Amino acid sequence: MKKIEAIIQPFKLEDVKEALKGIGIDGMTVSEVRGHGRQKGHREVYRGQEYQVDLLPKVKLEMVVPSARLEEVIQCVVSSARTGKIGDGKIFIYEVAEAVRIRNEDRGEAAL
Amino acid sequence: MRLLGLNLLWMMAAPAFPQDAAIGEKLAALEKAAAAAQSSGDNAWMLTSAALVLLMTGPGLALFYGGLVRKKNVLGTMMQSFVLMALATVLWAVIGYSLAFGEGTPFAGGFQYLFLNGVGGEPNPDYAATIPHQTFMVFQLMFAIITPALISGAFAERMKFSAMLLFMTLWLLVVYFPMAHMVWGKGGLLNAFSGGAIPCFDFAGGTVVHITSGVSALVCALYLGKRRGFPAESMKPHNLVLSFIGACLLWVGWFGFNAGSALGSSALATSAFVATHFGAAAAALGWIVAEWIRGGKPSVLGAISGAVAGLVAITPASGFVKPMPALFIGFAAGIVCYFMVASVKQRFGYDDSLDAFGVHGAGGTLGAVLTGVFATNAVNDSLKDAAGNPARLGLVDGNFVQILNQIGGSLLAWVLAIVGTLVILKICDAVVGVRVSPEHEIEGLDLSLHGEEAYNLES
Questions:
Q1: CA distance B136 to B125
Q2: Structural domains of chain B, with CATH
Q3: Up-side HSE of residue B168: CA atoms within 13 Å toward CB?
Q4: N or C: which end of chain A has fewer CB within 10 A?
């Protein structure tokens, strides 16, 4: 099992969710986060007081998938989240040691 | 012609007839009915105006200021405005009205209206002959509420609540009530309509409200010092939507403030209403044009700040100037106040957190001086010269001296505000300490002073 952590543009969340649903991935956790990679922030001015805002709002998707489906899911996220401009985000992959469904104690991929 | 002749004959003969008593009675009844009709119309407008001016403080100013602070301080900031609706009212009832509008020295009123003694339904012809004295009293009270509330913009996010209550009480007693008496009170030093030694024109409070509050605000900002982390840390307004709603409510409420200062539902009230609206509109444009030209973007905060600056500047002039000068005064205020907050404040580095000085101090002074330029008896003919004709008011009427009078009145307001505020702050600092502890400042006033939070979105 692999955990996929994708940090994407907030306005792309719906597209990505739809695309994942299309390939049968239903389970995910979404959080609103702020951060930046190479993308530069922007300048805000309030009555002449300038602020450089470099932490930008992003959305983080987390999902755990069977190892066999990893590439398919990565491709799905990449193609649905991409705008081609700087700031599109990143995907990180982790090994998952175990998964447990709390309701009935299913284990491993059966719990996904 | 024949009829007229007959009429004349009849009138000359009238005293001899028994009907004359009945006609006299009818005439008296007619006069009474006419006076009652005017009083009822004027009173309706003045009660409405009083309510409009209260609306400026709560929720107008509270929202305007509340949106500009960080979200940990929004309740504390709104509380500073709201508690004045309570505190200033009680003070006004007990002693404030008497000190402002009682007869006394040229500097302060006496004690004749202590506890509102004798302030009832009968009009007070010294101030407003067609409305109940009590209406006049409650209308003026609303000004005593918003004026100190304006100061709170300078010490936002860092003053103790206890110190603020003490400060505001003393400030009303030492600065506001005397200043109101000098400009508007019977026999006041600056009251052009009551034989003042320095006759000033201040229709709705350029000196009394905006210079006193704006200049006191600067003194507070300098005395308390900067907020922790200013200007390195981000202190962005937490919700400009709140500020937007607040500014629009201020604009509407200001019609009561200025047009209400005609003290009746008259053509003068209309004139002041129009000047007020024009001043705000031109100033909103002035501010955003200035920030646009200076390389920035035309911001919403700029537009609403500009409108408020225009309303401030037109306040003293509103019952004295024609519509075109009102546009000019507003436009000038938009540009000058933008320059004050975006350039002068940055250069000197003082933390007038919500720009009470930059908008009210600067805009109020500009408006007071320009009133001396544009005041004209074509708008307001209530001041008469020795021959009983309408007196020449401002520069446009050919009265050059008036600008000096306006500057003199403004200077007096500046000096009273600086000295009074400084002394009061020293007293407050000695008694309770003016500034919150660093821990409380970091935690935010909402939690540390009031034990609550504004946005409990998870609950």
A1: 11
A2: 48-450 (1.10.3430.10)
A3: 30
A4: C
Mean per-residue pLDDT, B210-218: 97
Q: Are B262 and B49 in contact (CB under 8 A)?
A: no
Answer yes or no: do B296 and A45 touch at CB < 8 A.
Answer: yes
pLDDT tops 70 at residue B84: yes
Residues in B touching A45 (Cβ below 8 Å): 291, 296-297, 299
What is the distance between the alpha carbons of residues B119 and B100, in angstroms, rounded to a whole number? Answer: 13
Mark yes or no for CB contact B341/A45 under 8 Å.
Answer: no
Span B117-143, mean pLDDT? Answer: 97
Q: Which two tokens stand for residue B224?
A: 């308390």
- What average pLDDT does the segment B7-30 reach? 72
Split into its structural domains, chain A has a count of 1
The enclosing domain of A38 has a CATH number of 3.30.70.120
DSSP 8-state secondary structure symbol assigned to residue A8: E
Q: Which two tokens stand for residue B418?
A: 């600086």
Q: How many interface pairs between A and B have CB atoms less than 8 angstroms apart?
A: 29
ipTM of the complex: 0.81
Can you give the pLDDT at residue B365? 97
Among residues B46, B43, B144, B54, the alpha carbon closest in space to that of B95 is found at: B144
Q: Find out whether B203 and B315 touch, Cβ atoms under 8 Å.
A: yes
Residues in chain A: 112
With a cut of 70, list the residues of chain A below it in pLDDT: 39
The pLDDT assigned to B1 comes to 43
Q: Are B163 and B373 in contact (CB under 8 A)?
A: no
Q: How far is it, in rounded angstroms, from Cα B77 to Cα B225?
A: 17
**B235, B237, B343: residue with CB nearest A48:** B343
- Matching residue, tokens 């504390």: B76
At residue B17, the pLDDT reads 63
